[in-house]
Amino acid sequence: RTILDNGSVRGIRDIGAFNIRVAREVIGASVHLLPKLVDRVRKTLHSTLILAPPQQGKTTLVRDIARSVSYGLWPMHEGTGWQGRKVGIVDERSEIAACVRGIPTFDVGPRTDVMDACPKAEGMMMLLRSMSPEVLIADEIGR
User: Fold this and answer.
1) Which of 39, 64, 71, 113 has the most CB atoms lying inside 10 A of its own CB?
2) Total of domains in the chain
3) Dihedral class, residue 128 (left if φ above 0, else alpha if ψ from -120 to 50, else beta)
4) What is the SS3 assignment for 43?
5) Is the pTM of this model over 0.90?
6) Alpha-carbon distance 132 to 127, whole Å?
7) What is the Cα–Cα distance from 7 to 19, expressed in whole angstroms?
8) For 84-107, how does the pLDDT look when each residue is reduced to its tens digit (9 = 90+)?
9) Which residues form the domain of 99?
């Protein structure tokens, strides 16, 4: 049961169950998708929206895309890759990088900056203004 205050959720009471999600890293989860995302003319990635029902691995996939692009593990031609790119992640719910004291606990790549526990809109603007990412990643579009 939710407790509302002026139409906003203030709290929850009468809890009947908990759902505990355990995030895990799957290195290589994006290996089959990345070739389809590559814009070979501009040597970058196409803008991409990943849609799937809950619990289908969207966050795991996005995390591995960030890692692969940052390390330069994305394919250009058969057997070759491009240089790593600067990646910016807005991790509003701390699910993509799972930062602890500012350090990602998952491998999101060496050229990746993470705005942890930051609202998406503000985090994106901060990253774009100060970190100049070539790839910008966020999880769950919405408020």
Assistant:
1) 64
2) 1
3) alpha
4) coil
5) no
6) 7
7) 25
8) 999 999 999 999 999 999 999 999
9) 24-138
